[in-house]
Amino acid sequence: MATKKMRQMHWQRTRNLTFITLGIWFVFAFLIHWFGAQLNQASFLGFPLGFYMAAQGSPLIFVLLLMWSTYRQEKIDEECGVAE
Amino acid sequence: MNGRFIDNLSKVYGLYTGGFLIFIGLMAGLEQLGVSAATLGILFVSFTILIYAAIGWISRTMQVDEYYVAGREVPAFYNGMATAADWMSGASFVAMAGGVYFGGYSYLAFIVGWTGGYVLVNSLLAPYLRKFGCYTVPDFIGTRYGGNVARLLAVIVLVVASFTYVTAQINATGTIAARALQIPFELGVWFGLLGILLCSMLGGMRAVTWTQVAQYIVLIIAYLVPVVWMSNAQGFGAVPQISYGAAVDRITELEALHGVGTLLPEAPQGGLRALTTAHAAASDSALASWKFVTLVLVLMAGTASLPHILMRYFTTPSVRAARRSVVWSLFFIFLLYFTAPALATFTKLQIMDPALATGIIGRPVADVMAIDWIQQWSNVGFLKIVDSNRDGLLQINEFFMRGDIVVLATPEIAGLPYVISGLVAAGGMAAAMSTADGLLLAIANALSHDLYYKIIDPDADTRTRLIVARVLLVVIGAGGAFIASLQLSNILGAVAWAFSFACSGLFFPLVLGVWWKRANRQGAIAGMGLGFAAGTYYLYLVRFTDMQPWLGLDHLRFGIVGMAVSLVSMVVVSLLTPEPDEETQAMVDKIRIPSGKSILAGTH
To answer: In three state form, how does the secondary structure of B400-418 look?
Structure first.
């Protein structure tokens, strides 16, 4: 069983990681789509950018974001001695 | 094959996938020999249902933990597939591309919302609920906050949200079964229910898990094959998802040519719609942006509160596997969701582009009426042509269809062989059945475990509990099929409501249960009760009375009102009442770390 201090550190780091993850999530879930019309002025891979981000860009970023944060979380669990 | 089923998963499902591909080849051969399209449809749908039923039979069990959480031995990868099938409903498979077709940019909120919700599931809930070791979502609420009132409220929210959702799924199975097997819709609904129950009744979560994996394989093949084929035929290459930008541009040109958005239909045609919305253009008004992000928020929070999804993560062997399986889930879901807009785009181009042989807009009405697929789908009432200006040519505002057609008729529109239509029917059936199974099981488990066993009769033995669970499953399924047979609403309206119901009542009580130690029983009861009541009352006001929606929050977005009330009342009431006892706070500390024993015993 990890010490109390280790567990506190684990929760602090877990919380920080969660805040960062949700920050990135917020940008691609809400912020950029608020400006969909403006983004559509630009073009990406032949798509209007606003359309692309909603149809494909944001979902793709969510997949990558989850891979990254899961990898980070597993490291945190191991380093704090609370991994299974 | 040596060893247990669980040690041979990749062999079993590899063989299964290979077998399914051979079956498709066989059907293609039969088509060459002159077997009719109708017969192919019947073979596709009945063969796949037979396989699912066989898996359901093999997975039968009389163990409580196998019935409720598949024995907690589902590896992350397979749980990801099962969750993706659980998640992608008839609405995702059949209606989503049609939604993009008619709704254009603003409809893409569904794609953002239904993928981004998994970030919340992974970061805020799944690993912690897995550590908790519960059988059902109300099991967590009941134990974390204590007391039967909290548990009962969670059961009520779960039942309302899931039941709204499941009728839509049974409706979808009925529609597909009716089309493929050429039987009346009312009969199709009961046939669909029979298939659903065969998968879940004997083996509970264990059987549903292994049929869902099989259903995912069928549905993803059925979705991707026609799109890739059509893209190849149109010269957009083998990975249409990255190369359809040019098609989007071309549609924007054609919209000006055909007058999309300026030519409006003269008279409404029941549930059929004419295209009036631009494909890619986004409105730059603040209200449009607000409506987009509020819909995204409701769908995401709803994803993280829907019990049939959360309970899938109770089946993994560890917390780490639960986390990984969320990532797999999103990946498998992404495969379909980033294809849907591509499909909508290609279909629209096929129909609108006068340079393509398939283009119908601008052609003489008499010629269009003679096309095979137009005749077939207008015969079943999915499509209608009204030459309202009597010029003998088909304008964009004279062509009416149901959104579902985009997926169901694509193979025929693009002139693909009938074997592909049969495949698509099997895929739609798999999508609707797998979601219906997950939902029915979530409802029946909550009623049998939380209401019957935990509240009404805590002394019931295992046998009685599992029999009660099964009886409930049949009764609820029959109720859902009965309501579906009345055909009260279209598929997608009811699905979006489920998300708002779920997040109004459950989102904050679940999230704060893990993330805010100070949250207590009184707060949770207020959060669930008031949030759910406020959301439901607001839905009633905007949908069934003359009230104007506040700030554009219409009936698809009533969860925003529910969640706001839920958050405020939960925080205020928690702070006004004593903090939870030491034991509860220690319990919250324990669920925050992956290692150590789960809170609830393995079998409870």
So the answer is: EECCCHHHHCHHHHCCCCH
**Cα B600 to Cα B414: distance, rounded to the nearest angstrom:** 55
Residues 6+ apart with CB under 8 A from B65: B71, B72, B135, B602, B603
Query: How many interface pairs between A and B have CB atoms less than 8 angstroms apart?
Result: 159
Tokens of B22: 């051979």
Rounded mean pLDDT, B379-403: 91
Q: Which residues of B touch A38 (CB under 8 A)?
A: 284
Alpha helices in B33-103 (DSSP H): 37-58, 64-69, 76-87, 90, 96-103
Contact with chain B for residue A72, Cβ under 8 A: no
Distance from C-alpha of B54 to C-alpha of B198, rounded to nearest angstrom: 8
**Maximal CA-CA distance, chain A:** 56
> How far is residue B133's CA from residue B318's CA, in Å, rounded to a whole number?
10
For B576, the token pair is: 């006004």
User: Residue B397's CB: how many other CB atoms inside 10 A?
Assistant: 21
| Single pTM value for the model | 0.95
Cβ <8 Å between A45 and B122: no
Quick check: ipTM above 0.95? yes
- pLDDT (mean) for B293-304: 97
Among candidate residues B479, B437, B561, the one with its CA nearest the CA of residue B56: B437
Strands B383-385 and A47-48: unpaired
